[in-house]
Fold this protein.
Amino acid sequence: MIDILYIVLPIYLAIALGFTLVKTKAFSDNDMRIIGRFVINVAFPALIFQAMATRPLSEVLNADYMLPYALSGLAVMAISYVTFGALGWETKIRAAGVMGSSCPNNGFVGYAFFLLAMPDLAPVILALNLVVENLLIVPLCMMLMRSAETERGGGLRRIGRIFLSVLKTPLIIALLTGTLVNFLNIPVPGPAKQFISILAAAASALGLVVIGAALASLPPGTSFLRAGQVVSAKILLSPAIAFAITYGLTAAGVIALSPDLYAAVILSAAMPTFGIFVVFTQRLYLEGFASLVLFGSTLGAFVTLSALLTWLT
């Protein structure tokens, strides 16, 4: 148990540091937003490029890992959509609930977690997760949110626009560029490698501090029961579904994963809701609801991640 705390506790101490820095006004909300933009647009893209360009393609485009992870995300989306609809949720909060249930924070919390638990595999796991999330799960959730916003269905043009906007993000550009460099075996000069490594090293710590700052400055919400149901879906249902699918595919001989990657699929699904969830809900005027989901899932994941890591290792 002490070993598990050594892995999980530093992550939450970094989050607590960001929370404290904002609450004590050592840093303003605007300061943290600037740092957050640096992490999203510079540090994490550098990390992803480094992972994709320097690792064997068989590691960073591992279909045996991506298949159960993608199926798990889609299953959680479907179950959440049906369940929240059966509970009578209106269209907008239903769409937000699906996104909060199915989009994990593997960029900030997940990478830092695996950097401590599986340091050699952490960049690879991050790259695999982001491929699935940014090219499948997040775009589908965005389409659902836009449909809720206009109260109309999506259509091929809307789907195309959403995927195009995702492809233009620095993370995806870095992912595709790194893959191309790797595939074509293009050598990266030594100084460029060092420069990218310096930028990538900033991703983990700064990302966690930014999450803490976001939790300190989010507006209060009122939908406590509904937020609690989304939190439960994120940190309890998601890893349960991931385990069932990964176990089933493995038992059927469809996939073959090392013990570490097997555990990584389940742990990745168990991560709290991603930090920019609040940004996505602003257009629907659901920031309060999103803040509760983000806060509750981040705190609750301390317990569930610790329990899962103990069980899986």
